[in-house]
Amino acid sequence: MSRYEEAKAIYAKYGVNADDAVRKLKDVTISVHCWQGDDVTGFDSREALSGGIQTTGNYPGKARTPEELMADIDKTFSLIPGKKKLNLHASYAIIDGDNPGRDRIEPKHFEKWVQFAKERNIGIDFNPTFFSHPMVKDNLTLSSPDESVRKYWIEHGKACIRISEYFARETGYPCVMNIWIPDGYKDIPADRLGPRKRFRDSLDEILSVDYDKSKVYVTLESKVFGIGLESYTVGSAEFCLSYSISKGITPLMDNGHYHPTELVSDKISSLLLFNDKIALHVTRPVRWDSDHVILFDDETREIAKEIVRNDALDRVFIATDYFDASINRISAWVTGVRSVQKALLFALLQPSDLGKLQDGADFTSLMVMQEELKTAPFGDIWQEYLSEQNVPESYIDEIKKYENEVMVKRA
Ligand code: RNT
Ligand code: ZN
Questions:
Q1: How far is the CA of 326 from the centre of ligand 1 (A)?
Q2: Is 35 a catalytic residue?
Q3: Quick check: 347 and 305 in contact, CB under 8 A?
Q4: For residue range 82-111, what is the model confidence (pLDDT) as tens digits?
Q5: 291 is catalytic
């Protein structure tokens, strides 16, 4: 008997069908963020990273051009099993000639990305970029009291909806367009309401664009604080959730965007009760929103468990969002995305009726079962999935080779 067959027999004793688990995992799409490859730099401006987010480290090999980033994405995708989507930021526009400004970007500035996606038969998700730009004034964009600033960013948001529709139309896959603004104050504000009113009005204007809601899903991402923006964040959890629900758009939770003892895994069920779809940015916050590479850790597994056990794989848009420049960037990508997939497989391999033990108040058995399952032969099932997908289990040699042959020469 193969290791897979043996492992399958062990899971069968728990009433779990491993073949089914593997089959379900194959259908799950992970939206892979493009910005791990170049430390969130992008191609459309020369500005330093702003918005209260930070990439640390200077490992060699950062992608400097669209061609380099595309090559790195190809390498990355070749080492990740399953279905992928590419998650782009507006700052990754490929502009030949005069820069029109973010308020005037058009589908044509993303033609090369569409071609890239079509050739690989993948969809594209999108994000307006409200940071790293001279029009961010006093750390404010859509909530700015300066009407010219606010208008500029409203136009950017509208332009991005049109580009998202173009992505959906061209690739044949719906496009998730996520709005996140960094707006906030370092110190105690005198007026907390004004900026939030302006943010609300700006969002209303952006969403007044007529777009096909079956092709473009607009999501809104909340946050608790950013570096240099510690005292007040305009797009707080309460703001974003209330806005999303009231306007029928999709709420997005980034698990680095809450107080350190709050867990997104515990929030998913509540949001699922009141929304058709929800969206996630999966990351790993270490003491703050540090955007470390996702690992196969407790909270990632718990997030996956909530999606799977609530039968919501088709209702949750799963995207990755982290940026580590202290290690090989392709390894960071592959390790993080695989960790999400591992967590999903782990969840798919749990008996679906554990809830009965909870309802029967048999917490003794529940604890024992949950602990037992942690050491069940999960690795053999993961291995089977990888070989079915023609992806090697170990990827370090492959990455080191690419690093030596391609990445170090970029110095
Ligand atoms: C920032 C948010 C946001 C960004 C990306 C680059 O804290 O998480 O999603 O990370 O848009
Ligand atoms: Zn995020």
A1: 18
A2: no
A3: yes
A4: 999 999 999 999 999 999 999 999 999 999
A5: yes
